[in-house]
Sequence to fold (1122 residues):
Amino acid sequence: MDTVIDTTDRTFVEVAEIWVPEGDRLVWGGGAYGGLGGFEVASARESFGKGEGLPGNAWAEARPVVLKEFDGSYFKRTEAARAAGLTAAVAIPVFAGATLKAVLVVLCADDAERVGAIEVWAEGDGVLTLEDGYYGAASHFEWVSQHTQFPRGQGLVGGVWSAEAPILMRDLGSAYRFMRADSAGKAGLTNGLGLPIPVPGGRTYVLTLLSARSTPLARRFEIWDARTAKVGAKKEARLVDGICSREGPLWDPDNAGRERAVRIWQGPVGHALGSGLPVVESGSAAGGYAMMVALPIHAHGELSHVVAWYC
Amino acid sequence: MQKLVVIGAGMATGRLLEHLFEADPAAYEVTVFNAEPRGNYNRIMLSPVLSGEKSYAEIVTHDDAWYTANKVTCRFGERVVAIDRDRKVVTGERGEVPYDKLVFGTGSDPFIVPCPGHDLDGVVAYRDLDHTNRMVESAAMPGARAVVIGGGLLGLEAAAGLRLRGMEVTVLHLSGHLMDRQLDPAASYLLQKDLERRGIAVMTQASTKAIHGDGHVAHVELEDGTELPADLVVMAVGIRPSARLAREAGLEVGRAILVDAQMRTSDPDVFAVGECVEYAGHLFGLVAPLYDQAKVLAKTLLDEEDAFAVREVSTKLKVTGCDLFSAGDFAEGEGREDIVFRDPSRGVYKRLVIEADRLVGAVMYGDTADGNWFFGLIKDGTDISEMRESLIFGPAYQGGAAQDPLAAVAALPADAEICGCNGVCKGRIVEAVEGGATTLDAVRAETKASGSCGTCAGLVEQIMSVTLGDDFVLPAAKPVCPCTDLTHEDVRRLIKARELKSQPAVWQELGWNTPNGCHVCRPAVNYYLLADWPLDYRDDPQSRFVNERNHANIQKDGTYSVMPRMWGGITTPDELRAIADAADKYGVPTVKVTGGQRIDLLGVPKEQLPAIWGDLNAAGLVSGHAYTKGLRTVKTCVGTDWCRFGTQDSTGLGVKLEKMLWGSWTPHKVKLAVSGCPRNCAEATCKDIGIICVDSGYEIGVGGAAGMDLKPTEPLVKVVTEAEVFEWVVAFMQLYREHAKYLDRPYKWLAKVSLDWVRETLADPAERAALNERFAISQSVYQYDPWKEHTAAEQERRYQPLADLTLEAAE
Fold:
C-alpha cells in the first residue's frame, strides 16, 4: 500500500473508537482521534454500563444507534465533544450470537458543511425502512431516504439483506445507478458500503456508509470474506471487493479465486479476524491514511466478513 | 517493423497485445479495429457494472494512455467491412489499412430467439457495455419489470443485477433447471431458492412464444398462454461465434473460424483468437482458454514455439451471496460414482463425480472453499483412490482421521442453537437430560427441542448420547433406504412441515447422500410429493415402477397386459366387440376375465401398446389402472336392479364410486367392492374398502386383505344415504393418501395408526369436508386417462426400445 496520499480533503468522520466489555461495563479499547487530544483523554477514562451513554445504549438495545444531538441526550462526554467540535455519533454493536464483542463508535463534525451518510435500516413488515441516520449537510437525501423502503434484493440495502453479505456500490450519484440516485447525485455521494449488523433476536439491520467526493467518508473501502464456505479451514480472509482512490480496483479481475488474502493477526484486518473485535488504527498502522477501521461481522456462528475503510 | 492489424478489442486480443508488447515492443506496428466506440474492457465484469457493484472505469483494462504508450493506432467505433487477402489489406468504414499479419478477434454475437416481437424496442441482448447501459436506463423507471429469457450464467447475472437496480424480474428458462449446463438439479434447486429469496421470479420449462408491444415491449407470451408484463426483455440464451467476416474473406470456417494449435487460420498470415475460433471441434466462451490462446498467438507472432491445448474450465456465478462452483463433467454414467455431501442447515451441497479413480466433475453450492483444489485434481487427473473416503471434505482433511460426529457435538458450546424452530440451545437440552429426561420424547416434552420440524431429532439424540454416555443407545429407526437416515414417516412429515415441493428440495433439505435418490426412495418421495402438493409438484414418470411408467403390467415374457376399465364390472356389447376386435387385430394370445370383474388382454408387445390403447379409446374404453398404486377396481353385485335379495343399488353405487375415485394415486393399490346385501356376493369384506348394503343404509368397512395376508374388513361407519357413503369413502381414501407409508396397504397402515384414530378423525364433519376438498383438488390434476395422452403420434416413440435408463426407478 502506497503511503503517500492526498489528505487535503476533510473527511466525514473525525473520530472512531472502540468500547469493549469488561465485567458489566464497556471500557475504552482504543481509537483514532486525529488532533482531538482533549476528547481522547476524556474518552480514555470513561466507561459505560449497559444502557448508559451511547455505547451502553447500543449494547442494551442491541442495535446500531444514531445520536444527532448531544445536548440534552444521554451522551456522557458532551462537554469534551463540544470542545472538539463533534456534533453527532453512531454506535455500532458487534455481536457474535448473543455475546457482545465490542461497540464501535464513530463521531462526526461540522454537519452543516460535510456531506456523507451513515444510515441504519431495519426490517419491518417484509421491507427495510430507515430507522435512523446521520447525513451531515445532505438534508434532501435524508428526506428522500426517510420516504424510501427496500424489499429484498433491491438497492444496496435490499441487496445486503438478501445476500447476507456486505456490498460495495459505486457511482451512487449517476443518474441511473442507485435507488435514491437522483438525490444522491445532487448530494455528491459516490461510493456506498452496506453491511449486515447481526444482533441477538434475529431482527435484520443493515448499516450503510455513503461517501461523498468532497468530504469522503473513506478513500478506500475493502470487503474481506472470511466464511469457512469461502476460505475453508484456513484462518484467513480474502479481499472479494474493494476500491481505492489511489490503487483503483482491489478485486480479482479474472474472477478466478485469486483474491488478495490476509491471515489472522496479519495487519489490522488480520487483527480483526483473529480477535473478532473491531480495529481502529491511524498513521502508519493505517497504511498511511489518517485513520482506518476494520469491522468484523459475526454471522451464522462464525466471523463471516471484515469490512474496512480508510480515510 | 511489420504491420499487425487486429480486428476486435476484446479480452483475448487485449491479452495478446499485452504479451506481444511485453516480449518485443518493437516487433509490430499495431492497428486495432473495434466496432464498439471504445477499447478493451473486462467484459466478464459487466454484470457487476450492471448491478452497480463495479463502475465502468474500474473494468477498463486498456485506457487511451495505454494504447498511446504502445503506439497502437486505434480505429474504435469503426467496423471492418472487407478483407482482401491477396492485397493484404483490411478495409474499414473509414478506409484501408495494409497488414503483414492479421488477427481476428471478432468474438461472438448474442443469439436472439427469433420469436415474433424480438425486434421491438426494449428487447436487448447482453453482450457489451451498450447493452448494459440500456438495461440500467430501463431500470431507472420506478416499478419497471424485466423478463430475462435464459437461465444460464449470463441471464442470472443480468437478473440479479436488474433486481439490485430495483426492477421486478422474472427469469424464463427452457430447461427443467437453471444453469443446466453447469449445475445438476440439486445445486440448481439451491440456486433457484437463493434467487427467489432476492425477489426474482424463476420459471423453468418456460418457452417464449412471442413478445408483444406497440413499438416498445409490453408483455411476453409463453407457449402455455402465460402473459408476463415487461418493460425490458433481456435475451441471454447463448452466443454464436462471429465468423461472417472471415467466411467472406475466404477463410475456412466451421462452426467458427478454424485454427490450428498456433491459432493460425487457413491463411498462414491470418490468425484468430477468442470466441470466434474453433479448435479441434471446440468452441470457447469462458475467459481462461482465451487467455491461453492469446499467450500462444503472441509467441507464434514472434516466431516462438508454443501450442494451444484445450483444458478444463470452471464456472462461478458473479452474484454477491450466491456461492457456486462447477467444473468438469458431472453427468451420470456407467462406471461413475458420486460422493455427495449436504448440509441443509447451511444450504450446502457438494457432489464429486469419480471415474476410474479420477475426479472428473465437481458441483458445489453454498460452500465453494475447496473448489479450486477439486478443479486442480480434475485438471491434473490425479489418482484419488488413496483419499477417496475423505475427498469430499477437501484438502484440510487429507491424511487426517475421519471426523467423529459425536466429537463435533461434544465440542458445541452450551449456547449453540440445536432446535431452530423452538430456539432451544444445547445447554438447555443437557440441563433437561441431567434433570432426568432420558428419552427423546422426555427431552421434547421438557424443552420443545425437535418438537416442530423434527430435523434436529438426530442432533438431540447425539447430545443425549454425549451427556448420558453408555446409558443412552441411539435408536435405530429403519430409514427409507441407504440414501438417508430418515424414516418414511419422517420424510412424509418433513415434506409437509417444511413445504418441500420438488425432488431436489427433498434431497437437499433432508440431506440425502446421493444426487437423485435411488430406485427405492424415488418412487416413495415422488408419491409423497404428488399427494401433498398436487398443484405444485408434477408426477415424475422416471420415479415410477416400470408398470406405472408404461401404463401396463409387464409379464414374465416381457410382453404387457392391457386391461380397460369396466365401471363397476358393467360392460356393453360394443365394448366387448372393441375388445374382441383389438384381440384379433393385435394377435392377443390370451383373453382373461379377472377377479376384479373386467377383461385382461395378455401378451401385448410394448411397441404395440399405444396402438391398442388408441383402438380401445376409440370405443370409449379407458385404462383400468391395473398396474398402479392407485384405485384398481370397484367390484359390485347386481343389487336391487336384478337380485331378489338386493337392498340397495349396489351396482350404481359401485359405478359412481369408481368414477369418483379413478385416477387417484395412493400409497399402494386400493380395491373396492359394493355388495347389495349381507350375502356379500361382491366379496366386499376382504377389500381395502368394502360396502355392504343393508335395508337401513350402508355399512362401510375398511382394511380388508385377500392376498399374502388374509383379513376381513373392520367396520368404519354405518351411514344412511349414498351421499354419506361418498363423503366417508373419499375422506378415508384421502386420509390414507396423506398419512400412509408408501407401499403400505390400508390394512397395514391401520395397524400402525389404529382404526380408532381414523374413526375419531373422520367423525369430525369439518375434517371430512376438508379431506374431500383436498381429494377433489388432487383429482382435478390426476383424474385423466393415461392411455389417451400416450396414443398421440409424438408419444409413440417413447414405446420403442430406448437406451438411457440412468434415472429410472425400480424394475
